[in-house]
Structures are given as C-alpha cells and as structure tokens.
Amino acid sequence: MKAQPAASHFIDGAFVEDTAGAPIEVIYSATGEVIARLHEATPALIDRALAAAARAQAEWAAVRPVDRARILRRAADLIRDRAEELARLEALDTGKPIQETRVADWPSGADALEYFAGLAPTVTGETIPLGRDFIYTLREPLGVCVGIGAWNYPSQIACWKSAPALALGNAMVFKPSEVTPLGALKLAEIYAEAGLPAGLFNVVQGRGAVGATLVTDARVAKVSLTGSVPTGRKVYAAAAEGMRHVTMELGGKSPLIIFDDANLEDAVGAALMANFYSAGQVCSNGTRVFVQKGLKDAFLARVKARAQAIVMGDPLDDATQMGPLVSEPQLDKVMGYIEIAKREGARLVTGGARADLNTGYYVQPTVFADVTDEMTLAREEVFGPVMAVLDFDTEAEAIARANATEFGLAAGVFTADLTRAHRVISQLQAGTCWINAYNLTPVEGPFGGNKTSGVGRENGHAAVQHYTQVKSVYVGMGPVDASF
Ligand code: NDP
C-alpha cells in the first residue's frame, strides 16, 4: 500500500522537497505499514512559504470577490469529481472507514469551498451618517493566515480553514499534523489546478516546532488552530505576543443529556454516533452521556446490542463501519483510559479491549455505565471509542453536572418536550448544541467552543469576522472646524 505524494511540501504553486528536514513516516493505522515518507520543513522552506504567501496575498486582495469565488467553486467541483480517489486517500491517511470518508471528510470540505465562494461577494461594509459628514466601513482581509491542523479530520480542517481565508482575500500557510500529512497536499494540488494563483495556499510539513515557528513570524496576521487544549494554550500565547488574530478549535468532554421521554432508538443512535464515529476521534463527541434513571436500563441494553453489532475491519472494505485509531500512541492512550476506568469502578457494559484483528490499532466499541463525575473518564478527553454513561434524576441536576467542566465545545439534549429542550440548551455552557440530534456540523452553522474549548468560530457567517478586519473611514464633507 503506497500513498507517496510528489514531494513533502507545496510552496508557491509547486511541490518542493528538502531532505535536510527530519523524516516523517506516514503509517497506515490498519496495518502499521509505512505508506509515505516525508520530511519536515526546514527554516529556509518555512521562510519561502511565508514570503510567497505575503507576495501573493497583496495581489489577491485586489481581485474582485466574484473572481476569487469562481476559483474556489472550480476546486469544489474537482473535489467532487475525484470523490472516490480522495475518500481512499483519506482512509489511508487516517484509518477511517471509506464509508465515512466518502460522505464526511472531503464532501464537507467541498461544501465549505462552495459556501464561502457564495458568501464572499456578499460581504460589504456599512455607511454611518453623521449629518454633514459620514463614516463608511470596509471589511478587509487580514493578510497571511497560518492554519494548523489536528489529525482526525485532516482534509476537512484544511478546507474549513482555507476556504474562508482565501474567499475573503487572505493567503494561507497550512501545517497539517505530521500524523496525517497527505490530505492538505492534495488540496494544494487541487487549488492549483482550479487556477488559484501561486503562493496563496502553501503546505509545510512538520511537528509542533514548525507550527511554533509559523505562529511567531512577523508576516503572519492570524493563526487558526485545531488541536488539543494544551497546544491551544501555547499557540494562543505565542500569537498574542504579536497581537495576532486567533481561532482556536480545541478539545471537549461534551454532555449528551437524554431524558426519560426521549425517543429511545433515536437517543441510542445519536449516542453511538457521538462516541464511535471516526472511532471516537471527534472533538465535539458527546462523551458524557447523561441518561435519566427511568430510561437507563432500556438505554444500556440497546446501546450494548447496537455497539456489539458494529463491523470493524479493513477501512477500505465497504462493509467496515469502524476502523482503527489513528496511531499507536493514540491506541496506548485510549487503552490507558480504559484501564483507569475499570480501576476507578466504572461498570464495563461492552468492549474494553483491543479488537482481535491481528493487525492495526483497533479498539472495540466500549461502553461504561455507572460513571460518576469524579472519575477520570468523566473529566478527561479520551479521543477514542469509549462511551461513559452517567445517570441523573432531575433536569436541574443534569444541567449543573453537564456544566461542571473546564470544556465547553458542544452539548446535546434528547427529549420529546421541546420547551424543556430549549430551556436546557439555554443553560448549557457550550458553543455548539443539538436538540434531538448530535454531531451534525453543516458548513452553514457556526462551529466552535466556549470556555477552554476555544475562541472564535469556524463556518457560517460568523467565520467572516474571523478572516477580515474592519476599516472605518471618516469622510469630512465641509470645512475643518479647528480649535487652534
Ligand atoms: P495537538 O494539539 O497535539 O496538535 C494539533 C496541531 O498543532 C498539530 O498539527 C501539532 O503538530 C501542532 N502543534 C503542536 N505543538 C505546537 C506548537 N507549540 N505550536 C504550533 N503548533 C503546534 O492535537 P492532535 O493533533 O493530537 O489532535 C487531537 C486534538 O484535537 C484533540 O484534543 C481534539 O479535541 C482536538 N480537536 C478539536 C477540534 C475542534 O474543532 N474543536 C476538531 C478536531 C480535533 P504535530 O501533531 O505534528 O505535533
């Protein structure tokens, strides 16, 4: 199995290699096989990428938004034309099953390109009358933006960051996670083919140090990171030094609250999707499933039956519903959390071990019941297929316990009582919420977190303010009234 790209980096419109950079092995997590060998970007390459971005952005900002949009739409068409090839590449890069990567990863990226292509030409300023004089405002691009991605949705993240950046007149230097470096390179190739001028979207590979170099460069106006909270703290602090704009999409430990009157099969389906899609490696997952006591036994019985029916196997097999974790370190981390949960007294309902497939970093879909708020499983982000079920009596109790966390990325409520649904949601401290649904993140809706889960929003109209800045222009229409 090979997925070797033409070179490690894409800078100023072309693939670039410099073997002086530290090696990166790309591992197919279903087998442990090396599918590509890349190199980290050297300081000289990072400098080239930033210089190209700065040069190209100055020209791009002067391009009419409808003309920028046409290129993004062409890129979206290319993504859709190559859907199968891209779904396969994403499965190799991440280990996610192809039945997911066909519908979620690149398709959601293409949606972002289409959405921001449509939105950008509608972005206007305002005119503020002052009697004789007036002020008008312009929404201008920020300049060179740095995108840094996590490994769980490499292509979607690259698209979600670059689409609004480019549509609104910025340039981007993107650093994927070194665990999943392939998708962003493919995106760079597609943008070039769609006619994006050289230098506007550059990809440099590397570990955290490459990201850190990008974040502190004087040419950079904005940093958008998708990653963990500890990395977010470091990147936010480094960006603050230069007063750079930031968007931080970080981790979570999100509550999914299921009331007695909820439709059982819908609630079970949502809880399964909220914990086992992408083998549980989704930042907004509802990993604290609060189930009201009257529904608890029925809920656990159905969750157990449906979790045990999940088909694990080769990600490239159409029948596979759940693949391996992304890497061996992630496997070790998740197995460590499962052991801690057992030790701390959570009741194992199903799973709890590596899946016996003789290969790869597979973990069984795992459900723990009788989890309490103090247990590690209820407090820390596992990022694997591990569902924690907690039970509760009253609405007020569920809300208070759901909010008792430093995170605030997402939250969900299942109930037939819509008045209660809105009442509960209005009190939950989370940036992205669902009622009788979970983890649906169409590009039309703003996405992001509160508390330590993040700053700013991706997608929706909200993203416009995170990739533009307001210029306010006072126009004097008469004689200057000077005091001196
Ligand atoms: P990390 O925080 O480890 O890394 C995120 C990215 O930041 C990687 O590209 C990483 O490089 C880079 N990086 C690490 N250190 C620095 C630094 N000092 N300066 C600049 N860049 C740096 O996250 P993971 O890749 O492990 O992804 C999993 C995490 O991402 C989870 O916690 C999850 O919740 C979160 N996430 C959040 C989402 C959201 O939208 N809120 C969506 C998806 C994931 P490298 O990996 O090469 O070291």
Automatic annotation (TrEMBL):
<feature type="binding site">
    <location>
        <position position="93"/>
    </location>
    <ligand>
        <name>K(+) 1</name>
    </ligand>
</feature>
<keyword id="KW-0558">Oxidation</keyword>
<keyword id="KW-0560">Oxidoreductase</keyword>
<dbReference type="GO" id="GO:0046872">
    <property type="term" value="F:metal ion binding"/>
</dbReference>
<feature type="active site" description="Nucleophile">
    <location>
        <position position="283"/>
    </location>
</feature>
<feature type="binding site">
    <location>
        <position position="454"/>
    </location>
    <ligand>
        <name>K(+) 2</name>
    </ligand>
</feature>
<keyword id="KW-0521">NADP</keyword>
<feature type="binding site">
    <location>
        <begin position="149"/>
        <end position="151"/>
    </location>
    <ligand>
        <name>NAD(+)</name>
    </ligand>
</feature>
<feature type="binding site">
    <location>
        <begin position="175"/>
        <end position="178"/>
    </location>
    <ligand>
        <name>NAD(+)</name>
    </ligand>
</feature>
<feature type="active site" description="Charge relay system">
    <location>
        <position position="458"/>
    </location>
</feature>
<comment type="subunit">
    <text>Dimer of dimers.</text>
</comment>
<feature type="binding site">
    <location>
        <position position="251"/>
    </location>
    <ligand>
        <name>NAD(+)</name>
    </ligand>
</feature>
<dbReference type="InterPro" id="IPR016163">
    <property type="entry name" value="Ald_DH_C"/>
</dbReference>
<comment type="pathway">
    <text>Amine and polyamine biosynthesis; betaine biosynthesis via choline pathway; betaine from betaine aldehyde: step 1/1.</text>
</comment>
<dbReference type="InterPro" id="IPR016161">
    <property type="entry name" value="Ald_DH/histidinol_DH"/>
</dbReference>
<dbReference type="InterPro" id="IPR016160">
    <property type="entry name" value="Ald_DH_CS_CYS"/>
</dbReference>
<feature type="active site" description="Charge relay system">
    <location>
        <position position="161"/>
    </location>
</feature>
<dbReference type="InterPro" id="IPR015590">
    <property type="entry name" value="Aldehyde_DH_dom"/>
</dbReference>
<comment type="similarity">
    <text>Belongs to the aldehyde dehydrogenase family.</text>
</comment>
<keyword id="KW-0520">NAD</keyword>
<keyword id="KW-0479">Metal-binding</keyword>
<comment type="function">
    <text>Involved in the biosynthesis of the osmoprotectant glycine betaine. Catalyzes the irreversible oxidation of betaine aldehyde to the corresponding acid.</text>
</comment>
<feature type="modified residue" description="Cysteine sulfenic acid (-SOH)">
    <location>
        <position position="283"/>
    </location>
</feature>
<feature type="binding site">
    <location>
        <position position="27"/>
    </location>
    <ligand>
        <name>K(+) 1</name>
    </ligand>
</feature>
<dbReference type="InterPro" id="IPR011264">
    <property type="entry name" value="BADH"/>
</dbReference>
<protein>
    <recommendedName>
        <fullName>Betaine aldehyde dehydrogenase</fullName>
        <ecNumber>1.2.1.8</ecNumber>
    </recommendedName>
</protein>
<dbReference type="InterPro" id="IPR029510">
    <property type="entry name" value="Ald_DH_CS_GLU"/>
</dbReference>
<feature type="binding site">
    <location>
        <position position="451"/>
    </location>
    <ligand>
        <name>K(+) 2</name>
    </ligand>
</feature>
<feature type="active site" description="Proton acceptor">
    <location>
        <position position="249"/>
    </location>
</feature>
<dbReference type="GO" id="GO:0019285">
    <property type="term" value="P:glycine betaine biosynthetic process from choline"/>
</dbReference>
<dbReference type="GO" id="GO:0008802">
    <property type="term" value="F:betaine-aldehyde dehydrogenase (NAD+) activity"/>
</dbReference>
<dbReference type="Pfam" id="PF00171">
    <property type="entry name" value="Aldedh"/>
</dbReference>
<keyword id="KW-0630">Potassium</keyword>
<feature type="active site">
    <location>
        <position position="249"/>
    </location>
</feature>
<feature type="binding site" description="covalent">
    <location>
        <position position="283"/>
    </location>
    <ligand>
        <name>NAD(+)</name>
    </ligand>
</feature>
<feature type="domain" description="Aldehyde dehydrogenase">
    <location>
        <begin position="16"/>
        <end position="473"/>
    </location>
</feature>
<feature type="binding site">
    <location>
        <position position="381"/>
    </location>
    <ligand>
        <name>NAD(+)</name>
    </ligand>
</feature>
<dbReference type="InterPro" id="IPR016162">
    <property type="entry name" value="Ald_DH_N"/>
</dbReference>
